[in-house]
Each structure stands twice: as C-alpha cells, then as structure tokens.
Design a protein that fits this description.
Layout (H helix, E strand, L loop, with lengths): L14 E5 L7 H13 L3 E4 L17 H13 L5 E4 L6 H4 L5 H6 L4 E4 L4 H11 L3 E3 L6 H5 L1 H12 L6 E3 L4 E4 L2 E10 H7 L12 E8 L3 H13 L8 E8 L4 H12 L6 E3 L12 E3 L2 E5 L4 E4 L6
Parallel strand pairs: 1-2, 1-3, 3-4, 4-5, 8-9, 9-10, 10-11
Antiparallel strand pairs: 5-12, 6-14, 7-11, 8-13, 13-14
C-alpha cells in the first residue's frame, strides 16, 4: 500500500463547499456549523440540494442524482478548495457510482472531510482518485458544534497540519501490544464490509494501518462484519489496527471480547479506545498517509503532515 497524494492545506479566506451525500440535514445545525467555519475565516458555500428530502425515502437527503450533481459541481469548481460533508446517515453508496471520477481526478487534489456513511467516499477517493482524505467531524454534526477539542483538532489539521502529526486520544490501550508501520485507511467498519465485491473496492488492507469504528452495531453484528472481512481475505497482512468509538453497540466488555477473538489472531498491534468516530472530542484522522502506530503508547505518528 502506497501513500496517496496530499491536498494543500487551507488558507484564510478559502472557499469550502458543503454537500449532503447521505442523510437529511437539520437546517438549524447546518447554519450553526457554517457560522463556525466563518469564524475560522473560511468562505462556506452550500450546495443547492443540501437541505432536500427524498420524496419517498426519508433517510436520504434528496434524490441520488441531485446529491451526486451537487458533489460533482462542488469538486470541479476551481474556486473551491475543500468539500465538507454536512452529515452522514445513509446514501453515499447510492450516489458514488454516479460521479464522474475522470473529471474528479482532473479537477486536482482538494480537501475532503466527513465520516460514518462517508466511508464509502473515502474508499472511492483512495481507489479511484489516489487522494488523501480526512475522516473527521461534519458541518452539521453535534460533536463539531459543541466540542471544543473536536473543533480545534480539525482546525489545526486544516490550517496547521504540522502541529498535529502525532495523534493520541489520551485513552488508548493496547489490546495487542507492539508497533507497526503502514498507510492509514478505514472508517465505519460496516461500510468497509459493504464495499466487498463492488467494482472499485480495495482488494485488501495489506500493508495498511486500519482505523475502524461504528455506531449501533451489537456485538454479534460486529462479529459478523469482522468475520466477513476475515473470510474474504481483506485483513490478510494488515499492518496494524486502531479501534475508535462504538457508540450504541452495547457493553464494551462484550465488544472487547469480539475484537480480541476476531483480530487478536492476526498477529499485529491493536490499540483500542483511540478516540475517533462517533465519540465526543473525536480526532480528525487522515487516510492515505504513511504512519507508525504504537499500541502501547496509544499514538499514531504521521510521516508527514496530513495536508501539504
């Protein structure tokens, strides 16, 4: 696994487009998030269909074609330096293949930010465009709106990425001790499993530092997801694993037993409680960057800043 192309860091006054590739967005939370971005001296522009609701499926932010068109137009706008997702939910998989990836590649590297269901787009940018992306808080997400640590870590990553080359949650523990080097990838583990068998899916996590988290998946479901990845050979020769948040997934003791059983036999370092994903104070994690994972210290040290 090779490092991917890093987009340029943001500068004051940069224009950032806000899109909704997945679920519907509460207007009041969107406005609060836009105000925060303006406070960072960014110029946020909202895509036309961000506040849409699908006519039949209330879990989608408008029609697939409209969500894809918003994304395409934002990415290909030469005045836009970054594309931020408004929220996750569900729907990115329905629109990812409607995007013109040749045009996206031609538009050049830009900052892309989101998490949760946006995992499908992180994987697409890695496999189809070869770009580093940021797994981090979304514009209308409560953690971004209310948590100072989340805000500051994202702001530093966007504007001063050299100041956050070593990532630590302060609570990381070694499930399997050791150090490993590789290229970061990951996201919502259920979305990674759902990518298997699709035309542009990553063949495996070989040589990668896999950072995974999820929400609302009980222990047996996480067992099933990890077992599927194991049976498919997707975890063969993975370099190391970091476990993030598991909100609404049940008692952590039960989850920890699943992780130890399903991941402990891989013979690679595994760190838990790493503080990214759906938790409060979530870290912003770059995907596609070479790094070292130290499970004992609970740190992820990037070889170079997330953004150029």
């Amino acid at each position: 696994m090779k490092s991917l192309t890093r987009p340029a860091r943001l500068a004051p006054g940069a224009r950032v487009a806000v899109v909704s590739p997945s679920g519907p967005v509460p207007e009041e939370r969107l406005e609060a998030g836009l105000d925060l971005l303006r406070g960072w001296d960014l110029d946020p522009v909202v895509a036309p269909h961000v506040l849409d609701r699908h006519a039949e499926f209330n879990y989608l932010a408008g029609a697939d074609a409209d969500r894809a068109a918003d994304f395409q137009a934002a990415w290909c706008d030469p005045e836009v330096s970054a594309v931020f997702c408004a929220r996750g939910g569900y729907g990115a998989q329905r629109m990812v293949d409607l995007l013109d990836w040749d045009a996206i590649r031609s538009a050049g590297p830009k900052v892309f930010l989101g998490f949760s269901d946006i995992t499908a787009l992180h994987e697409a940018f890695a496999t189809r465009a070869g770009l580093v992306t940021l797994h981090g808080p979304m514009v209308a997400a409560l953690d971004f709106l209310k948590n100072a640590r989340t805000q500051e870590h994202l702001r530093a990553t966007l504007f001063e990425p050299e100041t956050v080359r070593t990532l630590t949650s302060g609570t990381g523990d070694a499930l399997v001790p050791g150090r490993a080097r590789g290229v970061t990838l990951g996201g919502c583990v259920s979305l990674l499993a759902a990518e298997l068998g699709t035309p542009h899916a990553r063949a495996s996590a070989e040589g990668g530092l896999l950072l995974i988290e999820d929400i609302g998946e009980e222990a047996y479901r996480l067992d099933r997801i990890l077992t599927q990845l194991l049976r498919a050979g997707w975890l063969d020769r993975v370099a190391g694993i970091a476990l993030g948040s598991w909100v609404d997934c049940g008692p952590y003791d039960s989850l920890r037993a699943v992780f130890a059983d399903r991941l402990g036999g891989l013979g690679v370092p595994v760190v838990e409680h790493f503080g990214f994903g759906h938790c409060e104070g979530a870290l912003t994690i770059p995907f596609g960057v070479a790094a070292e994972l130290d499970a004992d210290a609970g740190t992820l040290t990037l070889d170079e800043p997330a953004l150029a």
